[in-house]
Amino acid sequence: MTEKELQAILDGMTTEDKILQLTQMPYVYFKKDGGEITGPVKEMGFSEADISRLGTILNARNQSAVTDLLENYQLKNGAKIPMAIMADVTHGFKTAFPIWLGLACSFDEQLAENCSKMAATEASVAGVSMTCSTMVDLVRDPRWGRVMESFGEDPYLGEVMGAANIRGFQGNFGRYNVAACAKHYVGYGACEAGRDYNTVDMSEYTLRNVYLPPFKACIEAGAQILMPAFNIMFGVPMTMNNKLMVDILREEWGFNGVTVSDYNAFPEAITHGLAQNEKEVAYKAFDAEVDIEMATATYVKYLKELLQEGKISMAQLDKSVMRQLKLKNKLGLFENPRYSYSEEEKQKLFLCEEHRALALTAAEESAVLLKNDGVLPLDINTESIAFIGPHANEKNILGAWVTECSPDDVTPVLDCVKDVYKGRVSYAKGCSWDIDDCDESGIKEAVEIASKVKTVVLTLGEAPNDSSEGCSKLNLDLPEIQYKLLDEILKVNKNVVVLLFTGRPLTIKRVHDKVRAILNMWWPGTEGGRATANLLFGKKSPCGKLSMTFPITVAQCPVYYNHFNTGRPRSDDSKRVPFCSGYIDGPNKPLYPFGYGLSYVKFEYSNFSLSANKFTAGESIKASVLVKNAGNIEAKEVVQLYIRDEFGSIVRPVKELKGFKKILLNPGEEQEVCFEIDEKMLSFYGADLKYGAEKGTFIAFVGSNSDTDYSIKFELI
After folding, report:
1. Which of 227, 244, 239 is nearest to 182 (CA)?
2. What is the pLDDT of residues 473-483, one digit of tens each?
3. How confident is the model at residue 597 (pLDDT cuts 50, 70, 90)?
4. For the purposes of burial, counting CB atoms within 10 Å of the CB of 147, is it exposed (0-12), middle (13-18) or buried (19 or more)?
5. Could you tell me the CA-to-CA distances from 261 to 82, 99, 266, 292, 684 in Å, in that order?
6. Catalytic residue among 108, 137, 141, 262
């Protein structure tokens, strides 16, 4: 459809038509009961004709819902403009891959793109044309429950993975693509004390250098939708924050896509204390160019009145509506209101062999080996193994926000192990994953079993929904009942391997100090059981690297690698040092740093060099390092490049990730890995908020994690 044709559609719309296009309601709000509309939309005063003119519907994603929308609303009422169905498609639709915090540990942008493409394919044939993903909130505090949806603590990794996600969902807007949404703009992951929906207060320097870059990368990758966050920034809720939503997003970045509020965010501005009533909410949100109101109806109630009062103009309304019409046209909804909905293709694509294979690869590549004293991989000929713990025989290893994914489609770790290992496998649950459960009745059986086997694989971790929206935590330890189980087993068997299932970094030093190996599986998705078995028995070598720091204690939070130095840095982290920036009762350093992850082989780094030790603006230099697989199996390594700006016009972080490359090496194989260092890589927003690189000296670091000290100095002149 041409722009002229779209303009004709817009010109033919009534004011009410236009306002309803800016309103999104969850499908569950207007389920029919005996032919009558029931639920919240009835209370809001919506008629069936009103519903048929809504611009978007949230989470209508099965046959009855799609049919109901089309036949009972759109077609019956002769609606001129098709509805778009938006859904919470995060780490899969029917086939789940690992949570994004886990998949980010793969450091593999192509894998991330492929996983998003798979999710889009399954969602599209269910009638979904818009997704609420990608979440690129940068998170430095694991107490926040939504960390599981994020790419972790690093801006550069967030940029790379966020852009890959957008490309995977949207592709070229073919039959199996969906429009992607960058969320939650901006700073949501910086909520004070890690408490969901809490206050955010930061400098614009930090905002621009740390929290905005992943969003900008998503916009540059073509994201069609952006969702403002629940939080305030500079004292103003994001849904009505003109500085962020208009000055930066629209004018500075040139974003001309659709913006949609988060669930119920509009009236929450009243609770924040920035608007006195819903009419003021509608005005301020519309003035900030928020195009779609999700789950509430302040636009429906007050935009027409605001037009009549001259507080907003018809030109503003038309501009907002046209953004939606253009997106629907790009999606092909005018030609096919059902979008790509097909029961036949759902049967063909949902959980198909190709999708399961991709989910398996993603789970294998996301797992992070945190400790290993040589016990892993397990010997296929080991005479006896016991699998103990709440996750060993559990199908629900998907994590939160799994859309249509079901634990029924998951094969538990225990069953998958039996397919790989032909020896004797014993099992006991031992205890619950519930943080409030103190039932010790299963521990006796678990200990008895553990005493009779050579190796114990103990599956510990969170409950599946303990990491999600509204699930902030004061305590990042495992439930005490799990420590009780661990301690009792260690009394009878010291040969213990821990499998960790979690949606966030946990404070597991007590585990680290006591067991022989720890393999963090995160929430691995539909094929998590098979991936776990393959990794345990060495069919695959772990290659994941932490996308987020693991603290020793929650008291260290927020803890992250790319912090600023202080005037009094701690000189010795192993002991009490007076009058420095540290703790008197513990270290500054975390348990496991960003980028950390072991393998079943040792990788040797050598011959780190630069093509020149000086360069000027507009030029670049090459950094190269030799990496050797010193083991006896093939394995992957993520080679990481960090840079420190030694002296700037303002203080710069001690180290920043600026590049990474994932390589596969055969036993004994050596490969040269190269990075190009240019002016852009050294650029940042200074005190004057101007972007650019400053002349001076820099240090390049290369290694297997952020704690590397393998370095070389260079200069921008």
Report:
1. 227
2. 999 999 999 99
3. very high
4. buried
5. 20, 23, 7, 6, 30
6. 262
Cα–Cα dist 585/581, whole Å: 13
529 and 623 fall within a common domain: no
Mean of all residue pLDDT scores within the chain:
96
Which amino acid belongs to residue 221?
A
- The answer to whether residues 505 and 369 belong to one domain is yes
- Can you give 602-666 as a three-state secondary structure string? CEEEEEEEECCCEECCCCEEEEEEEEEECCCCCEEEEEEEEEEECCCCCCCECCEEEEEEEEEEC
pLDDT of residue 559: 97
Say if pTM beats, i.e. exceeds, 0.85. yes
CATH number, position 665: 2.60.40.10
Give me the residue label for tokens 């590049």: 659
Last residue within a domain, chosen from 536, 558, 578: 536
Three-state SS string across 513-528, please?
A: CCCCEEEECCCCCCCH
Q: Does 663 have pLDDT greater than 90?
A: yes
Instruction: Tell me the per-residue pLDDT of 134-178, one tens digit each, with 9 for 90 and over.
Output: 999 999 999 999 999 999 999 999 999 999 999 999 999 999 999
Percent of the chain with pLDDT over 70: 99
State the pLDDT at residue 35.
64
Give the contacts of 534 (CB within 8 A, at least 6 positions apart). 360, 364, 420, 540
Q: Is residue 91 part of a domain?
A: no
Same domain, 426 and 500: yes
> CB atoms < 10 A from the CB of 377, how many?
19
Q: Is 474 in the same domain as 622?
A: no
Asked about 415 being catalytic, the answer comes back as no
* Domain CATH number, residue 401: 3.40.50.1700
Which residues are paired to 702 by β-bridges?
A: 641
Number of folded domains in the chain?
3
Question: Of 536, 570, 593, at which residue does a domain stop?
Answer: 536
Shared domain for 531 and 611, answered yes or no, is: no
Q: How far apart are CA 408 and CA 403, in angstroms?
A: 14
Q: What are phi and psi of 636, to 5 degrees?
A: -105, 145
Same domain for 381 and 292 = no
Say whether the peptide bond before residue 479 is cis (omega within 30 degrees of 0): no
Q: In the predicted model, what is the mean pLDDT of residues 180-184?
A: 98
Tell me, yes or no, whether 391 and 514 share the same domain: yes
DSSP for 197-254, written as a single string = T------HHHIIIIISHHHHHHHHTT--EEEE-SSEETTEEGGG-HIIIIIIIIIIS-
Encoded tokens for 367: 């797992």
**510 and 627 fall within a common domain:** no
pLDDT per position as a tens digit, 414-446:
999 999 998 899 999 999 999 999 999 999 999
In this model, does residue 408 exceed pLDDT 70? Answer: yes
Is residue 256 in some structural domain? yes
SS3 455: strand
Residue with tokens 């905002």: 207
